[in-house]
Amino acid sequence: KQVLDELPDADRCLLLETLPTDLPFDLTVPILPDGIYWKRSSQDRWNSMNYVCDYDNSWKRLYLERHLQEYIENLELEEYNLQNIEHLVNLCSPYVKRLNIRQLQAAKVPESLEWQSEEDVILDEPSSIHHINLEPFIKGLCNLEELHIMFGVRNCGMDFAWNLFKFSIVDCRNIGLGLDSAKSIKLFRIHRSMLYDTHVAVLMQHVVKNSNITKLDFSHCRIGDTGALAIGKVLTIHPMLEELVLCNNLICGKGAAGIAYALTQLSCKLKILNLRLNAIGDDGVLDLCSSLAYNKCLQELILGACSFTEKAAIKLGQMLQQNCTLLFLDVKNNYLGEVGGEAFNLGLKTNSTLLRLDIRRTGITEEYESSINLILKQNNIKYKIWQRELADAEQNKDEEWEEHVAERKEKLSRHIDTKHTKY
């Protein structure tokens, strides 16, 4: 590295443009800076998806994140070597901020389970299909901010078996132990996986210990009411959790009630809640409305395709009359009809904070839809005016503070000059 730094700029650029892109990691990662070499390495290795803007415009970060991702995705359980893993992680650690794992190689499936049907997989308790231990990766990446995991196998072809998409409690415990030491992580996501209530219960024991996590995403999984209750309990304790995505799970009214209870607690800091494609029904929405009437944090609520009717729409309209923090409400793909349109129209007449209301495919008449959109337009105008006034107030405050500092400096300068004159 010392020799590289001593080279003239033109010679250094020429060297980085001609170096082979398959040099050993031990040599390139510590020595070669971000720039042309890592750009060439990325483009030589991957023909597409080289969107450097998604990596803070750092080609080195892009290369190392994608290399580590592919290493994890293709690592067989039988080839797992802790010493090699720790060495690789130590090299990549300063540069990796996001880890997006799209598949994990499972242990060999017993022949008796290979052709188990999807219905059997759904009805049975999760069986012990183990994967590599992710704890050393999560624990060793000191700058990791986002962790995305999808359990399954891509392009498995004729080796397909439903159990390849299952994972064990041990897998969850290993991930949780990694989270305990992940001091920079903000987003934790397991999606499109057979994540059951028992898995969630284990994960939540570790999520609650990590106060840095601000977003949880368990979309397109198998979470039921028991898992939702466990998540609701964490919401009442976790000091930083602001966004929860549970889209397309198996949550019903009881699970929604648990989350609704969490929203009534002052310790709950949740700002975004996504329950889309969960059949929580009228009862679940009624519980959520009761909590939102007085909640002071939640800003976005997504209830698209949640199997509720006019009964819940009436309650939502009443909630809007009292709630003063909700900015976006999504109720599309629920049949609300004319009664629902009337309820929302009435609720919005005294609500000046809601900015967006998605009522597509709800059966609300054009008359009520037009009236609702007019109210929302007025709310948006008021909101923009308020933002402008707030920005002006902040600017004036900064100017006043600068004047105050300048005045204090002038007084201090005069005081020092007076002292010098005396002496």
From TrEMBL:
Compartments (UniProt record): Cytoplasm, Cytoskeleton
UniProt KW keywords: Cytoplasm, Cytoskeleton
Record InterPro entries: DRC5, Leu-rich_rpt, LRR_dom_sf
A cellular-component GO term for this protein: cytoskeleton
Keyword Cytoplasm belongs to the record: yes
Protein name: T-complex-associated testis-expressed protein 1
Organism: Diploptera punctata (Pacific beetle cockroach)
